[in-house]
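Q: Could you write out the predicted structure for this multi-component system? I'm mainly interested in how the pieces pack against one another.
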Amino acid sequence: MGPLDDQVVREDSLTATADGLNVAVYTHWYRALPLTSLTKVDLTVDGQPVDPATLSVTVNGHRYEFAELAVKADEYWFTTDPVVLHVPVATAPGRQHRIQLQLGLSIPYILTGPDRTPLLTPSSTDKTLTAA
Amino acid sequence: MTDTAPGLPQLGTTLFSLTLEQRAPGNDLAALLRKVATRELGPGVEMVAFQSLRGWPRLDDAAVRKVRGLIADSGLTPSCLAINLDLALQPGRLLSDDEAYEYVAVQLRGAASLGFPAVRVGVECGPEIMTRLLPLAEQLGVKIGVEIHAPLTIDAPPVAALKELFTRLDTEWLGFIPDFSASMRAVPAAVDDAHRKAGIAPELTALTRQLWAQPGPTMAKFPQLEQRAAELGAGQAEIGNLKMIFTMHGRMEPERWADFFPHVIHVHGKFYGVFDGPDGPSDPSIDYPAIVRVLREQGYTGFISSEYEAHAYTGLYSAFDQVRAQHDMLKRLLEAEPAVAR
C-alpha cells in the first residue's frame, strides 16, 4: 500500500532475451533488505502462473536460482536497484505481456506477534507492458 | 539553515523524508544532500544507513571517504545515523545475542568512521545488547539511542526495561530517541486516500479510526480490530493494512515525554503534513505546542530531525516543501515558548 507499490514494475521493466522474459522489479520498502527477505514472488505472465523454482534472478551483478536467495543473508538489495527476474516464457521485442506480481518482503527488524515472526509486507502489481 | 536561538533544540532533516524523491532519476546521495543544504533544511542531517548508503554495512575506505566528503561539502552537520538490528536476517530463526551484538557493532564502527555522533536503533535492541555495546560506544564516541516510535510508549515493558537500565548505568552514551509518532492527536487524512486506492472499504477505515480514537492502550485494540473488521468481511491482507494505523500512529500524552528525560539523545520529528489553516500553518495530527513545551522545559538542546512520512500514503506533496513548513512552525514555537529557569 502506498506510492512505491506503483513502481515495483515500471513501464520499462520488460526486456525480451533469447532465454525468455526479463522483468526488472524494484522494492516497495524504503531501505535495502537482505536477499533472504525476498520470500514471496507470485508471478503470473499472461494468465499463466510461474513456478518460482523455474525462476532465476540477477541482483548486484550476480545470477542466482530463486531458492538460493534463502541463504544469501550477507548480500543486500539496494533501495534504487532492480532485481531482474528471468522468466522462461516465449517473447520478442515489442510483444505485450500482462504482468501480475504479488511480492512479499520479510522485514527482518519488525517482529510481530508472540512468536516474533518478521512482518511480511506485500505489494500487488497488475500491468500490461511491452517488452523492449 | 533553520537556525534556532542558542539554548534551544536544533533542527535538521533525515533523508528518510525524501524516500520518494530518492527514486527519481539523478537523486543520488550527493544530489539529495545538496538539495537539503540548498533549501536550508539543516543544520542537522540524518540518514537511514541501509536506505542511503550503497554497500552498507560494509563500506570500504573509499566509500567512507566519499560519503564524508559529500556531507562536508554540503555544509550540513551529521546528527544521527539510523541503523538496524535485523534479528530475522536468517530464515526461520532469530539471531543469537552474539550475532546481534556483532551485527550492530559493525554498524556502530561504520557510523563512527562516517563522523556521526549518534546512531538510532529499534527497541529490538534490548537491554542485554545495549549493555554489551556500551564500552564500544564510549570508545568510539558514538551515542546509541533507541527510537520510541508508535505504538510504543514510555510504559511499554521493553521501554520501561530500557529506562531502568539507563537510570542504573547513568551514562551519556545510551538513551532514547522519542519520535513524534508516539504522541499523535489524529490519524492523518492521507490514510483515507491510500486505503481507497488499495480497495479497502471506507467503513473498515472508519472503524479503525473510531477504535484508534477511543481511550485505552493501543496494544489492547489489535484483537478488537481483528474481530470487528473480520465481521465486516475484511481479509487478512486488509486487516494487516488496517493494523498499520495503530502501528504508525501512537496516542501517548505529549506531557509523558518528560519521563524520557534525562536520557534523550536525539528526537525524531515524524509528521504527515503541515497545512495552511485559518490560524496559519498547523499539523492536524500532532500537537506541536505540547511537545515543544516539554522539550523546552527539559532544556533539550540536541537535534530534532524532521521526518516526513506521508510518502507512505501519498505522493501528492513535495517532502522538501513539507519539511520547510515544519521547520518554520517548529522554529516559531520553540522561540515563542518562554525560557525556563533551570
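A: Regarding packing and overall arrangement: The two ends of chain B are 28 Å apart (CA to CA).
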